[in-house]
């Protein structure tokens, strides 16, 4: 049985990119693997979120995790800050992480370019904390997107460095989890890149039907095909990727044929896409509304998750302290 670890930052609501990219697979794997799913509130602090909203965001993401099908009886679901061992392990790992290699990460370069007024140590050491998230459970598989592959490689490097320095075979070298194939990349509605919270181009699991319709109808398109069977530009290919994710094969075939015959009407395509997205989102949204109002249930879930996560992480931390020579009198 593999040990799988995955987390999501508590910076906002989950969207269809999260759902089709990983969440649906998490629901399946939680019954066959040893899974740890956490809400990364420590990581979100690098952007200095509103302290009045931090707990609200955690609660939202937790409710959406559960509404999407994660089962606290099958998987360990917890809030990162409820497991203090991860902070100590991150500190210990940082003793063998070098400033140069952290400064060279693509995500750090991107962040300091966009937010030159907030280049904090937490941002620089983000990959170390991420490594601690993974290594505290000695995970063998980590579902990550393309943008996190470099961080995962650093996690393997830190594990190798620790093992070599102390001449042990303690930390496994985790591998990316692709669910038996390539992860589904759900594009945004703006025609560029993937769907994301910060880009403002997403359909969220908590969106109302009307909000979904408005967003989809504003999706970027072009003037239409100019010749039969012409290749699709990226903005249109993105719409068809979304259609394939939420619609039936017959629907996809219908609009593909219209495109190939130069008969497509983007308004009709968007209306169909919106209604099919609503079919996916509406039942999840209903479950979110039921769950988010049950504070007693949410409290039980995170308390149970923290206990299970701490049992795992405390064993790892105890061994790491011993290996590094930190011993009680």
TrEMBL record:
<keyword id="KW-0067">ATP-binding</keyword>
<feature type="binding site">
    <location>
        <begin position="145"/>
        <end position="147"/>
    </location>
    <ligand>
        <name>ATP</name>
    </ligand>
</feature>
<dbReference type="Pfam" id="PF00579">
    <property type="entry name" value="tRNA-synt_1b"/>
</dbReference>
<keyword id="KW-0030">Aminoacyl-tRNA synthetase</keyword>
<dbReference type="InterPro" id="IPR014729">
    <property type="entry name" value="Rossmann-like_a/b/a_fold"/>
</dbReference>
<dbReference type="InterPro" id="IPR002306">
    <property type="entry name" value="Trp-tRNA-ligase"/>
</dbReference>
<feature type="short sequence motif" description="'KMSKS' region">
    <location>
        <begin position="194"/>
        <end position="198"/>
    </location>
</feature>
<keyword id="KW-0547">Nucleotide-binding</keyword>
<keyword id="KW-0648">Protein biosynthesis</keyword>
<dbReference type="InterPro" id="IPR002305">
    <property type="entry name" value="aa-tRNA-synth_Ic"/>
</dbReference>
<comment type="similarity">
    <text>Belongs to the class-I aminoacyl-tRNA synthetase family.</text>
</comment>
<feature type="binding site">
    <location>
        <position position="133"/>
    </location>
    <ligand>
        <name>L-tryptophan</name>
    </ligand>
</feature>
<protein>
    <recommendedName>
        <fullName>Tryptophan--tRNA ligase</fullName>
        <ecNumber>6.1.1.2</ecNumber>
    </recommendedName>
</protein>
<feature type="binding site">
    <location>
        <begin position="194"/>
        <end position="198"/>
    </location>
    <ligand>
        <name>ATP</name>
    </ligand>
</feature>
<keyword id="KW-0963">Cytoplasm</keyword>
<comment type="function">
    <text>Catalyzes the attachment of tryptophan to tRNA(Trp).</text>
</comment>
<dbReference type="InterPro" id="IPR050203">
    <property type="entry name" value="Trp-tRNA_synthetase"/>
</dbReference>
<feature type="binding site">
    <location>
        <begin position="9"/>
        <end position="11"/>
    </location>
    <ligand>
        <name>ATP</name>
    </ligand>
</feature>
<feature type="binding site">
    <location>
        <position position="186"/>
    </location>
    <ligand>
        <name>ATP</name>
    </ligand>
</feature>
<feature type="short sequence motif" description="'HIGH' region">
    <location>
        <begin position="10"/>
        <end position="18"/>
    </location>
</feature>
<dbReference type="InterPro" id="IPR024109">
    <property type="entry name" value="Trp-tRNA-ligase_bac-type"/>
</dbReference>
<comment type="subunit">
    <text>Homodimer.</text>
</comment>
<keyword id="KW-0436">Ligase</keyword>
<feature type="binding site">
    <location>
        <begin position="17"/>
        <end position="18"/>
    </location>
    <ligand>
        <name>ATP</name>
    </ligand>
</feature>
<dbReference type="GO" id="GO:0004830">
    <property type="term" value="F:tryptophan-tRNA ligase activity"/>
</dbReference>
